[in-house]
Write a structure and sequence with these properties.
heterodimer, A: about 600 residues, alpha+beta, Alpha-Beta Plaits, 10 strands, B: about 270 residues, 3-stranded mixed sheet, 11 helices
Chain lengths: ~600, ~270
């Protein structure tokens, strides 16, 4: 490209870049709003044509990301992701290092095919459970896992937005696009080195909060969640065939009163399941019971009443799955019609088929004979039931739910279809070499057609912030390119650094991108830098594709500040401070650049 | 396999029936032992305890609930002793203190007033008039005592499983009746009835431990799940909550213990 002299248009484009960066850093406007601002301002300033201003919305990258989000939602809805999480926890055992390795590897693999933030969001509840159960500080788990989610995005070309975008940005330069797995060796190297860093240096770079201090620092809501172990867990028992022989009838309420164990469901021969059975229901012989209670109470009941405690939940497995039912906390609201009435009087069990497990009142837990307590405003009732029933109760309005009950209805029976459409999309990408957006949208459409998720659910799953952030920054990239600003900066930077070896140039590009990605979004950094570095590379006789690849990869090197979506998402639950990211992220960022350049050198022989 | 409570007036031969029945059934016979147990457990001088539980409470005591603590200690000691089963108890208000336990046989032994007066005259060396007055006064004291504490008249036969009048029936006959009753199925100790007895003993122990804070507390226990009922929230409730934190360690058999302030007290609470 001809080197032009700095002109008014270029200054205007640089001013717009400066404005975008300034707004990103100061957060006066939300990042996606900044992107829309660019989308609108650039054509007004005649830096791009109106058509170019909105071309981002129909770009391969944006459509691919929309499709990936829908595919991810489909996989999630069928419980495929949950099924993947279970074995990981079983394999990892109780060692914190092994858990970090297992979850990090799993999240890296998952985020290599879906949105990093989606994978991170998916793993958060599982990590919180593990932290609580094994008494490992959550701050020791979340950061390694979050970083692995980001690093996992570099394993395939669809793993992160910058890489999805990359091939699009190569088109104007008529460079050969990258294949889906072209980045895999480098990505794997980055993931492994990241995990190794945490294993070897974790104790120095991670905050060493204890599990107890974690809970002490939490707010009221989390405090009550901490108390939930008092409520216990789900267990399945079976009454022997002679259970009712030679004894007084045992009723549901007897078991509750005697052992503080809540019968949530029973089977009725031949194969009927009765949920939230009325308190006077007589427990029959040869039936399965799904109960909620503390371990010691359930064991005591099994021993005293001579019922068989099963190893795990079998008959009611699907009914206790997190996507079907759950335990929530609901507070008696001011002027509630149930104020002053007892749980027996409002008969939640009969009307809504939900089982009240305990009441929290003024810091005290009430588990025994809660049916007789007159409810007061502010009482938090812990309820167990199916999401459908809990939603009905929420709709009634007498209770305020502090735990969300709008849990999506899962479709585990559609898992085969979800997996099939993922395979179809991958096959189209890998074998038939069809454009990424078309392949992924085919997978997404397949899922909708086979009712893995409805079209409305598909629309709802799309994060419009990401879409507009991506689409809005594309015209900025076009303007940078079209006006010759990119070339001018490239040449200026190149002139400033002088003649360097290709590997050094790539390293500089890596550092430059990492710096950019910290202050502007990874997508923004990629869009801005790819045209620039291609020009730089061409001028310096370095492979421009590699220069673009370095940008695509280094755009994920966003660890020093919690500006990456995943880091921002995990900052709260992990109770991290910016300095924590500075310490751990600093090391990971350096290792990232070293490993990335090293792997490019080894794999591509640059 | 039962607990027999024998309620008796003075010189009614109840003690004799109790001792002989216990001997024949191979049961332990209890009376004064309960006072010794309570005195030892709660460090109360024996004489003070005897006076507190024997004499009818004064008007002031009735208003202040002054006797309640001693009764709670006595009940705790009694239930601790009788829950071991195979007991004949002929002390104070067994039929009322052990109410609700299915394997407790409640017997009342009565005798003719003239016989009792004769025995009193011989025993105390007093005139017939004096002896009669003493016995009637004693009966009146008992009646007042049970009425004030339990709202029940000891002479109400509905409180007992059976009443034996020692006159035409001899002591030996009475022993036969009691022993025959002890062998009946409906009075046999079952796992459920023993659980009830254990729960009563546990609730009694908890109450005895809490009466120093408030005599107004009521306690129930269901399979070791103890509920403490008291007035509305306040300083007293906070003190009770503080106390129950340590009770689980001090008293064996507590599975769960909660204070339910302001809740409706169930009729079986003690």
């Amino acid at each position: 490209m001809e080197v032009s002299i700095l002109n008014a248009e270029m200054i205007l484009v640089m001013a717009m870049i400066f404005l975008a960066v300034l707004l990103f850093i100061t957060e006066w406007l939300r990042v996606d709003v900044v992107a829309i601002l660019m989308m609108v301002t650039l054509p007004l300033l005649h830096l791009v044509t109106p058509r170019e201003a909105f071309v981002g919305l129909s770009s391969n990258a944006v459509v691919s990301i929309i499709a990936v989000i829908i595919i991810g939602a489909g996989l999630d809805k069928t419980g495929l992701i949950n099924k993947l999480v279970g074995p990981i926890v079983r394999v990892a055992g109780k060692s914190p290092s092994r858990i970090v390795v297992a979850i990090s590897l799993a999240i890296a693999v998952i985020s290599s095919f879906m949105q990093n933030i989606g994978a991170a969001a998916l793993f958060l509840p599982a990590i919180q459970r593990i932290s609580k159960a094994l008494k490992i500080s959550i701050s020791k788990l979340l950061m390694p896992v979050g970083f692995s989610a980001i690093l996992g995005g570099t394993i395939t070309l669809v793993g992160s937005s910058p890489l999805i975008l990359l091939n699009d940005l190569l088109i104007p330069f008529k460079l050969q696009p990258f294949g889906l797995f072209d980045v895999t060796p480098i990505g794997l190297g980055l993931v492994v080195s990241g995990i190794l860093c945490f294993i070897f240096f974790g104790r120095f770079i991670l905050p060493q909060g204890s599990q107890e201090s974690d809970s002490a620092g939490e707010g009221i809501n989390s405090e009550s969640l901490e108390l939930l172990p008092e409520i216990g867990d789900a267990y399945e028992l079976r009454t022997p065939d002679d259970f009712t022989h030679y004894r007084e009838p045992v009723r549901v309420e007897d078991l509750r009163r005697r052992y503080l164990v809540n019968i949530v469901a029973t089977t009725e021969p031949p194969d009927y399941k009765l949920f939230s059975p009325p308190l006077d229901t007589i427990i029959r012989s040869g039936v399965d019971l799904l109960v909620f209670g503390r371990d010691k109470d359930v064991k005591r009941m099994a021993e005293k009443e001579e019922v068989i405690l099963k190893e795990g939940v079998e008959v009611f497995k699907d009914d206790v799955a997190a996507h079907t039912s759950g335990t929530v906390e609901a507070v008696v609201r001011p002027r509630s019609p149930i104020e002053g009435k007892s749980l027996k009087q409002i008969s939640l069990r009969d009307r809504f088929q939900v089982a009240p497990l305990a009441i929290y009142r003024e810091g005290e837990i009430y588990r025994a004979e809660i049916g007789d307590l007159a409810l007061r405003v502010g009482d938090a009732i812990v309820l167990h039931g199916t999401w459908k029933r809990l939603q009905l109760l929420q709709g009634e309005g007498s209770l305020l739910f502090t735990t969300p009950v709008d849990v999506e209805i899962m479709r585990p029976e559609k898992a085969t279809f979800a997996a099939l459409w993922l395979c179809v999309a991958l096959l189209m990408i890998l074998v038939f070499k069809i454009q990424l957006s078309v392949c992924l949208m085919t997978g997404a459409l397949g899922m909708v057609v086979t009712r893995v998720l409805s079209i409305d659910e598909a629309y709802q799953s799309v994060d419009w912030r990401t879409v507009f952030l991506l689409a809005g920054l594309i015209p900025l990239g076009i303007a940078t390119e079209k006006t010759g600003t990119a070339a001018w900066i490239a040449h200026s930077v190149l002139a400033a650094i002088g003649t360097v070896k290709p590997i050094i140039l790539l390293a500089i590009i890596g550092v430059l991108t990492s710096a950019f990605t910290l202050v502007i979004s990874n997508v923004g950094a990629t869009v801005l830098l790819v045209p620039l570095v291609i020009n730089m590379a061409v001028a310096a006789n370095t492979d421009p594709r590699m220069a673009a690849l370095v940008v695509g990869l280094a755009a994920s090197n966003s660890f020093i500040l919690p500006t990456h979506q995943v880091n921002a998402f995990y900052m709260g639950p992990g109770r991290y401070r910016s300095t924590d990211f500075l310490k751990a992220g600093g090391l990971i960022s350096i290792v990232f650049i070293v490993v990335m350049i090293g792997m490019i050198y080894v794999v591509y022989g640059v | 396999m039962a607990i027999i409570t024998i309620s008796r007036g003075s010189y009614s031969k109840g003690k004799e029936v109790a001792e002989k029945a216990a001997e024949r059934l191979g049961y332990q016979c209890l009376s004064r032992d309960v006072i010794l147990e309570a005195s030892g457990l709660y460090h109360i001088p024996e004489i003070k305890l005897v006076k507190a539980i024997h004499d009818a409470p004064s008007v002031l005591e009735r208003l202040s609930g002054g006797r309640s603590a001693y009764i709670a200690y006595y009940k705790s000691a009694l239930t601790r002793l009788v829950k071991k089963d195979n007991i004949v108890y002929h002390g104070l208000a067994g039929h009322l203190l052990l109410k609700g336990v299915p394997h407790v046989i409640k017997v009342r032994i009565i005798a003719d007033l003239s016989d009792r007066v004769r025995h009193e005259m011989t025993q105390e060396g007093v005139s017939e008039e004096e002896a009669r007055s003493m016995i009637l006064k004693d009966d009146q004291e008992r009646r007042k005592w049970t009425m004030s504490l339990y709202g029940a008249d000891p002479w109400d036969s509905a409180l007992y499983d059976f009443v034996i009048h020692i006159q035409r029936f001899t002591v030996s006959n009475a022993v036969d009746f009691v022993c025959d009753a002890a062998r009946l199925d409906q009075f046999k100790t079952t796992a459920e009835s023993q659980q009830k007895m254990d729960d009563l003993a546990l609730a009694s122990q908890v109450k005895a431990a809490l009466v120093t804070i408030s005599v107004e507390v009521a306690v129930t226990s269901d399979y070791g799940n103890v509920l403490v009922f008291t007035g509305p929230e306040g300083r007293l409730v906070r003190k009770l909550r503080e106390k129950i934190k340590t009770l689980s360690k001090e008293i064996q058999g507590i599975n769960n213990i909660e204070v339910h302030p302001g809740a409706v007290v169930p009729p079986d609470a003690i």
